[in-house]
Amino acid sequence: MEYRPIRKVVSGNYAAAYAALHARVQVVAAYPITPQTSIIEKIAEFIANGLADIQYIPVESEHSAMAACIGASATGARVFTATSAQGLALMHEMLHWASGARLPIVMVDVNRAMAPPWSVWDDQTDSLAQRDTGWMQFYAENNQEVYDGVLMAYKIAETVNLPAMIIESAFILSHTYDIVEMIPQELVDEFLPPRKPLYSLANFDEPFAVGGLATPNDYYEFRYKIAKAMEEAKRVIKEVGREFGERFGRDYSEMIEKAYIDDADFVFMGMGSLMGTVKEAVDLLRKEGYKVGYAKVRWFRPFPKEELMEIAESVKGIAVLDRNFSFGQEGILFNEAKGSLYNTDARPIMKNYIVGLGGRDFTVKDVKAIAEDMKKIIASGKLDREVEWYHLKR
Protein backbone atom coordinates (compact mmCIF):
# COMPACT_ATOMS: atom_id res chain seq x y z
CA MET A 1 0.00 0.00 0.00
CA GLU A 2 1.40 3.39 -1.02
CA TYR A 3 1.84 5.86 1.81
CA ARG A 4 -0.51 8.80 1.40
CA PRO A 5 -0.61 10.83 4.61
CA ILE A 6 -3.89 11.90 6.16
CA ARG A 7 -3.42 15.54 7.11
CA LYS A 8 -5.31 16.84 10.13
CA VAL A 9 -5.08 20.16 11.95
CA VAL A 10 -4.80 19.08 15.58
CA SER A 11 -3.29 20.10 18.89
CA GLY A 12 -0.30 18.28 20.31
CA ASN A 13 -2.62 16.56 22.76
CA TYR A 14 -4.93 15.37 20.00
CA ALA A 15 -1.90 14.20 18.03
CA ALA A 16 -1.01 12.01 21.02
CA ALA A 17 -4.56 10.66 21.24
CA TYR A 18 -4.68 9.81 17.53
CA ALA A 19 -1.31 8.05 17.82
CA ALA A 20 -2.64 5.94 20.70
CA LEU A 21 -5.69 5.10 18.58
CA HIS A 22 -3.58 4.13 15.56
CA ALA A 23 -1.23 2.08 17.75
CA ARG A 24 -4.30 -0.02 18.66
CA VAL A 25 -3.87 0.58 22.36
CA GLN A 26 -5.97 -1.87 24.37
CA VAL A 27 -6.01 -0.31 27.85
CA VAL A 28 -5.91 3.32 29.02
CA ALA A 29 -5.81 4.36 32.68
CA ALA A 30 -5.46 8.03 33.58
CA TYR A 31 -6.42 10.84 35.92
CA PRO A 32 -7.18 14.38 34.67
CA ILE A 33 -4.65 17.18 35.11
CA THR A 34 -4.13 20.42 33.19
CA PRO A 35 -2.72 20.56 30.51
CA GLN A 36 -2.90 16.82 29.80
CA THR A 37 -6.63 16.23 30.20
CA SER A 38 -7.66 16.71 26.58
CA ILE A 39 -5.52 13.70 25.53
CA ILE A 40 -7.66 11.36 27.59
CA GLU A 41 -10.87 13.24 26.72
CA LYS A 42 -10.14 12.68 23.02
CA ILE A 43 -9.51 8.97 23.60
CA ALA A 44 -12.79 8.78 25.56
CA GLU A 45 -14.49 10.39 22.55
CA PHE A 46 -13.02 7.72 20.25
CA ILE A 47 -14.40 5.03 22.57
CA ALA A 48 -17.84 6.66 22.85
CA ASN A 49 -18.11 6.97 19.07
CA GLY A 50 -17.15 3.34 18.50
CA LEU A 51 -13.85 4.19 16.83
CA ALA A 52 -11.70 2.39 19.39
CA ASP A 53 -11.89 -0.92 21.21
CA ILE A 54 -10.13 0.34 24.32
CA GLN A 55 -10.73 -0.55 27.95
CA TYR A 56 -10.67 2.78 29.79
CA ILE A 57 -10.05 2.65 33.53
CA PRO A 58 -11.02 5.78 35.52
CA VAL A 59 -8.97 6.01 38.72
CA GLU A 60 -8.69 8.25 41.78
CA SER A 61 -5.08 9.40 41.26
CA GLU A 62 -2.06 9.26 38.98
CA HIS A 63 -0.43 6.73 41.29
CA SER A 64 -3.42 4.45 40.73
CA ALA A 65 -3.33 5.16 36.99
CA MET A 66 0.20 3.83 36.69
CA ALA A 67 -0.63 0.89 38.98
CA ALA A 68 -3.52 -0.02 36.64
CA CYS A 69 -1.25 0.35 33.60
CA ILE A 70 1.29 -1.97 35.21
CA GLY A 71 -1.34 -4.62 35.87
CA ALA A 72 -2.77 -4.40 32.37
CA SER A 73 0.66 -4.45 30.72
CA ALA A 74 1.65 -7.49 32.79
CA THR A 75 -1.22 -9.42 31.16
CA GLY A 76 0.24 -8.66 27.73
CA ALA A 77 -1.95 -5.70 26.74
CA ARG A 78 -0.70 -2.62 24.89
CA VAL A 79 -1.15 0.19 27.42
CA PHE A 80 -1.22 4.00 27.31
CA THR A 81 -1.49 6.84 29.81
CA ALA A 82 -0.75 10.55 30.08
CA THR A 83 -0.05 13.07 32.83
CA SER A 84 1.74 16.29 33.81
CA ALA A 85 3.82 17.80 36.62
CA GLN A 86 2.47 16.90 40.10
CA GLY A 87 0.68 13.94 38.51
CA LEU A 88 3.95 12.54 37.20
CA ALA A 89 5.56 13.15 40.58
CA LEU A 90 2.76 11.18 42.25
CA MET A 91 3.52 8.28 39.89
CA HIS A 92 7.18 8.22 40.88
CA GLU A 93 7.10 5.03 42.95
CA MET A 94 5.22 3.14 40.25
CA LEU A 95 7.55 4.33 37.47
CA HIS A 96 10.31 2.30 39.10
CA TRP A 97 7.94 -0.65 39.29
CA ALA A 98 7.09 -0.44 35.57
CA SER A 99 10.72 -0.51 34.45
CA GLY A 100 11.72 -3.09 37.04
CA ALA A 101 8.95 -5.40 35.78
CA ARG A 102 10.18 -4.76 32.18
CA LEU A 103 6.79 -3.48 30.97
CA PRO A 104 6.66 -1.49 27.68
CA ILE A 105 4.09 1.08 28.82
CA VAL A 106 4.00 4.30 26.78
CA MET A 107 3.09 7.56 28.49
CA VAL A 108 2.81 11.12 27.23
CA ASP A 109 3.97 13.71 29.74
CA VAL A 110 2.92 17.27 29.00
CA ASN A 111 5.78 19.25 30.51
CA ARG A 112 4.43 21.59 33.18
CA ALA A 113 6.29 23.52 35.87
CA MET A 114 6.29 22.01 39.36
CA ALA A 115 4.53 23.78 42.23
CA PRO A 116 4.69 25.83 44.36
CA PRO A 117 3.99 28.47 43.21
CA TRP A 118 1.30 26.91 41.05
CA SER A 119 1.88 27.02 37.32
CA VAL A 120 0.33 25.28 34.34
CA TRP A 121 2.98 26.40 31.86
CA ASP A 122 5.98 24.74 30.25
CA ASP A 123 9.03 23.52 32.17
CA GLN A 124 11.01 20.28 31.76
CA THR A 125 11.71 19.65 35.44
CA ASP A 126 8.79 17.24 35.92
CA SER A 127 10.02 14.72 33.35
CA LEU A 128 13.73 15.19 34.04
CA ALA A 129 13.13 14.53 37.73
CA GLN A 130 12.23 10.98 36.61
CA ARG A 131 15.46 10.39 34.69
CA ASP A 132 16.66 7.62 37.03
CA THR A 133 13.45 5.55 36.95
CA GLY A 134 14.42 3.39 33.95
CA TRP A 135 12.04 5.06 31.47
CA MET A 136 13.17 6.07 28.00
CA GLN A 137 12.47 9.74 27.26
CA PHE A 138 11.75 11.35 23.87
CA TYR A 139 11.33 15.15 23.67
CA ALA A 140 9.06 16.37 20.86
CA GLU A 141 9.73 19.67 19.13
CA ASN A 142 6.31 19.91 17.45
CA ASN A 143 2.94 18.18 17.12
CA GLN A 144 4.17 15.94 14.31
CA GLU A 145 6.90 14.59 16.55
CA VAL A 146 4.34 13.89 19.29
CA TYR A 147 2.37 11.69 16.89
CA ASP A 148 5.41 9.99 15.38
CA GLY A 149 7.08 9.63 18.77
CA VAL A 150 4.20 7.66 20.29
CA LEU A 151 4.12 5.20 17.39
CA MET A 152 7.88 4.66 17.43
CA ALA A 153 7.92 4.42 21.23
CA TYR A 154 5.68 1.36 21.20
CA LYS A 155 7.90 -0.46 18.72
CA ILE A 156 11.06 0.44 20.64
CA ALA A 157 9.59 -0.27 24.07
CA GLU A 158 8.18 -3.63 23.04
CA THR A 159 11.54 -4.63 21.55
CA VAL A 160 13.71 -3.85 24.61
CA ASN A 161 10.95 -4.32 27.22
CA LEU A 162 11.29 -0.94 28.89
CA PRO A 163 8.67 1.81 29.32
CA ALA A 164 8.85 5.03 27.32
CA MET A 165 7.83 8.62 27.91
CA ILE A 166 6.95 10.99 25.04
CA ILE A 167 7.27 14.57 26.25
CA GLU A 168 5.56 17.65 24.83
CA SER A 169 5.44 21.27 25.99
CA ALA A 170 2.47 22.62 27.93
CA PHE A 171 0.32 24.87 25.72
CA ILE A 172 3.18 25.57 23.29
CA LEU A 173 2.31 22.17 21.80
CA SER A 174 -0.47 20.64 23.91
CA HIS A 175 -3.12 23.24 23.02
CA THR A 176 -1.64 24.76 19.85
CA TYR A 177 -2.98 23.48 16.54
CA ASP A 178 -0.83 22.56 13.57
CA ILE A 179 -0.94 20.28 10.53
CA VAL A 180 0.00 16.70 11.42
CA GLU A 181 0.53 14.02 8.79
CA MET A 182 -1.13 10.88 10.09
CA ILE A 183 -0.57 7.39 8.76
CA PRO A 184 -3.35 5.16 7.35
CA GLN A 185 -4.23 2.41 9.80
CA GLU A 186 -3.15 -0.39 7.47
CA LEU A 187 0.37 1.04 7.26
CA VAL A 188 0.58 1.61 11.00
CA ASP A 189 -0.34 -2.05 11.45
CA GLU A 190 2.50 -3.08 9.14
CA PHE A 191 4.97 -0.91 11.04
CA LEU A 192 3.65 -1.80 14.50
CA PRO A 193 2.36 -5.39 14.70
CA PRO A 194 0.56 -6.71 17.80
CA ARG A 195 2.61 -6.91 20.97
CA LYS A 196 4.42 -10.13 21.78
CA PRO A 197 4.86 -9.86 25.55
CA LEU A 198 7.96 -11.04 27.38
CA TYR A 199 5.54 -12.73 29.78
CA SER A 200 1.81 -12.64 30.51
CA LEU A 201 0.01 -13.03 33.81
CA ALA A 202 -3.09 -13.87 31.75
CA ASN A 203 -1.55 -17.21 30.76
CA PHE A 204 -3.31 -19.36 33.35
CA ASP A 205 -1.79 -22.57 31.96
CA GLU A 206 1.66 -21.44 33.10
CA PRO A 207 1.11 -19.41 36.29
CA PHE A 208 4.05 -17.60 37.87
CA ALA A 209 4.77 -14.64 40.16
CA VAL A 210 6.27 -11.26 39.26
CA GLY A 211 7.90 -8.72 41.55
CA GLY A 212 8.72 -10.96 44.47
CA LEU A 213 11.60 -10.54 46.88
CA ALA A 214 15.12 -10.70 45.44
CA THR A 215 17.95 -11.35 47.87
CA PRO A 216 21.29 -9.53 47.64
CA ASN A 217 22.56 -12.52 45.66
CA ASP A 218 20.15 -11.75 42.80
CA TYR A 219 18.99 -8.11 42.93
CA TYR A 220 22.22 -6.73 41.44
CA GLU A 221 21.74 -8.66 38.17
CA PHE A 222 18.19 -7.39 37.78
CA ARG A 223 19.50 -3.81 37.72
CA TYR A 224 22.28 -4.78 35.35
CA LYS A 225 19.77 -6.23 32.87
CA ILE A 226 17.82 -2.96 32.85
CA ALA A 227 21.06 -1.07 32.22
CA LYS A 228 21.92 -3.39 29.31
CA ALA A 229 18.42 -3.02 27.89
CA MET A 230 18.78 0.77 27.99
CA GLU A 231 22.07 0.52 26.11
CA GLU A 232 20.46 -1.83 23.59
CA ALA A 233 17.71 0.75 23.16
CA LYS A 234 20.18 3.08 21.43
CA ARG A 235 20.57 0.61 18.57
CA VAL A 236 16.83 -0.08 18.42
CA ILE A 237 15.95 3.63 18.48
CA LYS A 238 18.18 4.23 15.46
CA GLU A 239 16.85 1.20 13.57
CA VAL A 240 13.21 2.05 14.24
CA GLY A 241 13.82 5.71 13.42
CA ARG A 242 15.44 4.74 10.13
CA GLU A 243 12.60 2.35 9.27
CA PHE A 244 10.06 5.06 10.09
CA GLY A 245 11.85 7.40 7.70
CA GLU A 246 11.97 4.83 4.92
CA ARG A 247 8.26 4.08 5.28
CA PHE A 248 6.86 7.54 5.97
CA GLY A 249 9.50 10.06 4.93
CA ARG A 250 10.35 11.42 8.39
CA ASP A 251 13.71 10.07 9.51
CA TYR A 252 14.48 9.69 13.22
CA SER A 253 17.61 7.58 12.94
CA GLU A 254 19.69 10.19 14.81
CA MET A 255 19.15 10.59 18.54
CA ILE A 256 20.46 14.15 18.16
CA GLU A 257 19.12 16.10 15.19
CA LYS A 258 21.80 18.51 14.05
CA ALA A 259 22.64 21.05 11.34
CA TYR A 260 25.56 23.29 10.31
CA ILE A 261 27.95 21.34 12.51
CA ASP A 262 30.83 21.00 10.03
CA ASP A 263 31.79 24.69 9.93
CA ALA A 264 30.26 25.92 13.20
CA ASP A 265 32.34 27.62 15.89
CA PHE A 266 29.60 26.81 18.39
CA VAL A 267 26.22 25.12 18.54
CA PHE A 268 23.03 25.52 20.52
CA MET A 269 21.96 22.35 22.31
CA GLY A 270 18.53 21.84 23.83
CA MET A 271 15.40 19.72 23.87
CA GLY A 272 11.74 20.06 22.98
CA SER A 273 9.74 22.92 21.53
CA LEU A 274 12.30 25.64 22.29
CA MET A 275 14.49 24.11 19.56
CA GLY A 276 11.98 25.27 16.93
CA THR A 277 12.81 28.83 17.97
CA VAL A 278 16.53 28.00 17.91
CA LYS A 279 16.32 26.60 14.37
CA GLU A 280 14.68 29.78 13.07
CA ALA A 281 17.26 31.94 14.84
CA VAL A 282 20.19 29.87 13.58
CA ASP A 283 19.05 30.30 9.96
CA LEU A 284 18.94 34.06 10.50
CA LEU A 285 22.29 34.12 12.29
CA ARG A 286 23.94 32.18 9.46
CA LYS A 287 22.80 34.89 7.04
CA GLU A 288 24.41 37.46 9.32
CA GLY A 289 27.75 35.63 9.20
CA TYR A 290 27.65 33.73 12.49
CA LYS A 291 29.28 30.30 12.31
CA VAL A 292 26.64 28.60 14.42
CA GLY A 293 24.70 25.34 14.34
CA TYR A 294 22.23 23.44 16.46
CA ALA A 295 21.98 20.05 18.14
CA LYS A 296 18.48 19.03 19.18
CA VAL A 297 18.53 16.18 21.69
CA ARG A 298 15.57 13.96 20.78
CA TRP A 299 16.24 11.13 23.23
CA PHE A 300 17.40 12.09 26.72
CA ARG A 301 17.17 8.51 27.95
CA PRO A 302 19.10 6.61 26.86
CA PHE A 303 21.49 9.54 26.67
CA PRO A 304 23.14 9.90 23.21
CA LYS A 305 26.69 10.12 24.51
CA GLU A 306 28.35 8.87 21.32
CA GLU A 307 26.56 11.35 19.06
CA LEU A 308 27.37 14.20 21.45
CA MET A 309 31.06 13.25 21.35
CA GLU A 310 31.07 13.51 17.54
CA ILE A 311 29.55 16.99 17.72
CA ALA A 312 31.95 18.10 20.47
CA GLU A 313 34.95 17.10 18.37
CA SER A 314 33.82 19.48 15.60
CA VAL A 315 33.10 22.72 17.48
CA LYS A 316 34.79 25.16 19.82
CA GLY A 317 31.77 25.79 22.03
CA ILE A 318 28.34 24.51 23.04
CA ALA A 319 25.57 26.71 24.43
CA VAL A 320 23.34 24.35 26.40
CA LEU A 321 19.77 25.63 26.84
CA ASP A 322 17.98 24.16 29.86
CA ARG A 323 14.28 24.72 30.54
CA ASN A 324 14.87 23.13 33.92
CA PHE A 325 17.23 23.35 36.88
CA SER A 326 18.69 20.89 39.38
CA PHE A 327 18.92 22.89 42.59
CA GLY A 328 22.38 22.91 44.07
CA GLN A 329 24.04 22.19 40.74
CA GLU A 330 23.02 23.37 37.24
CA GLY A 331 20.74 22.63 34.30
CA ILE A 332 20.16 18.91 33.88
CA LEU A 333 21.00 18.61 30.18
CA PHE A 334 24.17 20.65 30.80
CA ASN A 335 25.17 18.35 33.64
CA GLU A 336 24.63 15.23 31.51
CA ALA A 337 26.48 16.68 28.53
CA LYS A 338 29.52 17.71 30.60
CA GLY A 339 29.68 14.32 32.25
CA SER A 340 29.52 12.54 28.91
CA LEU A 341 32.56 14.42 27.62
CA TYR A 342 34.74 14.20 30.75
CA ASN A 343 36.85 11.20 29.75
CA THR A 344 37.23 12.25 26.12
CA ASP A 345 39.62 14.47 24.20
CA ALA A 346 36.70 16.64 23.04
CA ARG A 347 36.54 19.58 25.43
CA PRO A 348 34.69 22.49 23.81
CA ILE A 349 33.85 25.48 25.98
CA MET A 350 30.39 24.83 27.40
CA LYS A 351 28.05 27.37 28.97
CA ASN A 352 24.67 26.67 30.52
CA TYR A 353 21.79 29.09 29.87
CA ILE A 354 18.72 28.59 32.05
CA VAL A 355 15.74 29.74 29.99
CA GLY A 356 11.96 29.71 29.90
CA LEU A 357 11.19 28.29 33.34
CA GLY A 358 7.47 28.27 34.08
CA GLY A 359 6.69 29.00 30.44
CA ARG A 360 8.47 32.36 30.17
CA ASP A 361 8.83 33.33 26.50
CA PHE A 362 12.05 32.37 24.76
CA THR A 363 12.32 34.17 21.43
CA VAL A 364 14.54 34.49 18.38
CA LYS A 365 15.81 37.75 19.89
CA ASP A 366 16.91 35.82 22.98
CA VAL A 367 18.75 33.24 20.88
CA LYS A 368 20.57 36.03 19.06
CA ALA A 369 21.62 37.61 22.37
CA ILE A 370 23.00 34.28 23.58
CA ALA A 371 24.82 33.86 20.25
CA GLU A 372 26.53 37.20 20.77
CA ASP A 373 27.59 36.12 24.25
CA MET A 374 28.95 32.82 22.93
CA LYS A 375 30.81 34.61 20.15
CA LYS A 376 32.67 36.71 22.74
CA ILE A 377 33.40 33.62 24.85
CA ILE A 378 34.86 31.74 21.86
CA ALA A 379 36.99 34.76 20.92
CA SER A 380 38.40 35.13 24.46
CA GLY A 381 38.75 31.39 25.04
CA LYS A 382 37.33 31.52 28.56
CA LEU A 383 34.01 31.61 30.41
CA ASP A 384 32.77 34.55 32.43
CA ARG A 385 30.58 32.09 34.36
CA GLU A 386 29.47 28.53 33.76
CA VAL A 387 25.73 28.93 34.44
CA GLU A 388 23.66 31.97 33.53
CA TRP A 389 20.03 32.49 34.44
CA TYR A 390 19.09 34.25 31.24
CA HIS A 391 16.43 37.02 31.21
CA LEU A 392 16.10 37.32 35.00
CA LYS A 393 14.13 40.35 36.14
CA ARG A 394 16.62 42.87 37.52
UniProtKB/TrEMBL annotation:
It comes from the Archaea. Residues 19-240 form the Pyruvate flavodoxin/ferredoxin oxidoreductase pyrimidine binding domain. Keywords: Oxidoreductase, Pyruvate. Residues 264-367 form the Pyruvate:ferredoxin oxidoreductase core domain. The keyword Oxidoreductase applies. GO terms for molecular function: 3-methyl-2-oxobutanoate dehydrogenase (ferredoxin) activity. It is an enzyme of class 1 (oxidoreductase). Pfam families: PFOR_II, POR_N. Gene3D superfamilies: 3.40.50.920, 3.40.50.970. Its EC number is 1.2.7.7. GO terms for biological process: carboxylic acid metabolic process; response to oxidative stress; sulfur compound biosynthetic process. Heterotetramer of one alpha, one beta, one delta and one gamma chain. NCBIfam families: PRK08366.1 (NF006232). PANTHER family: PYRUVATE-FLAVODOXIN OXIDOREDUCTASE-RELATED. This is Ketoisovalerate oxidoreductase subunit VorA. It comes from Thermococcus chitonophagus.
